[in-house]
Amino acid sequence: MDVLSKREEQILLAVFSLAEEAYLVRIRSDLSMILGKRLSIGAVHIPLRRLERSEYVEAAFGETTAVRGGRRKKIYRLTPKAFSVLRESKRVQDVLWARFSGLAVKGIPR
Questions:
Q1: Which pTM was predicted?
Q2: CB 75 within 8 A of CB 23
Q3: Among 10, 80, 82, 103, which residue's Cβ finds the most Cβ atoms within 10 Å?
Q4: Which three-class secondary structure state does DSSP give residue 4?
């Protein structure tokens, strides 16, 4: 299994949920809101480039807009490889969290 960093996993999940709005600034904004802290562009852009090189995301340019001065947004989407690694990551986390929950039953404080 390929191992994702926590940030890479968060980015992949954000890309999926944002669908056609999954471009760099929007991904950063969405994650910043969820995490409750402002992420730098680099905190998203660097792992996003790594995910693209690893073929977990594909990118295509959207239409030009006057709001962006004629520049196009680079829209990201998940590849089948990303879905596979996310499913495996969730499976592993579910097993580990289930074990953690079991610790509380054994008298270990939460």
A1: 0.85
A2: yes
A3: 82
A4: coil
